[in-house]
């Protein structure tokens, strides 16, 4: 299985390097459209940067993955909190069970108490 993972990562690296070499041309990345950038008061938001196209592609992929991971983490919050609550309830019930068993077995012979606990 490890070799399959290495083969996949090597193939992915070859594909990404090929994509980067094929898209080295410079593109202009604007934060606002030109019509909106001329409005008074928001000129400071109008940023324009020249970058190679492959950097824009890779940054878009990474940004999409980060947004997806954060979105999924927030979506699963209720499941994680419910699991933590259930875990606390289980611990509480286990403590109560041990306490009840100890009270039940305090007057019994030790051998009989051990046999009751094992069944």
UniProtKB/TrEMBL annotation:
Coiled coil: 83-110
Recorded GO MF terms: isomerase activity
GO CC annotation: plasma membrane
Name under which the protein is recorded: Phosphoribosylanthranilate isomerase
Organism: Pseudoponticoccus marisrubri
Transmembrane segments: 46-71
Keyword Transmembrane helix: yes
Domain Lipopolysaccharide assembly protein A: 45-97
């Amino acid at each position: 299985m490890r070799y399959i993972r290495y083969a996949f990562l090597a193939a992915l690296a070859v594909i990404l390097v090929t994509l980067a070499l094929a898209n080295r041309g410079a593109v202009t990345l604007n934060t606002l459209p030109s019509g909106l950038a001329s409005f008074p008061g928001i000129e400071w938001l109008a940023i324009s940067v020249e970058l190679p196209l492959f950097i824009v592609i890779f940054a878009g992929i990474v940004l999409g993955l980060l947004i997806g991971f954060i979105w999924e983490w927030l979506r699963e919050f209720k499941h994680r909190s419910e699991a933590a609550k259930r875990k606390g309830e289980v611990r509480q019930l286990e403590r109560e069970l041990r306490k009840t068993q100890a009270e039940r077995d305090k007057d019994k012979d030790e051998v009989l108490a051990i046999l009751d606990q094992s069944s």
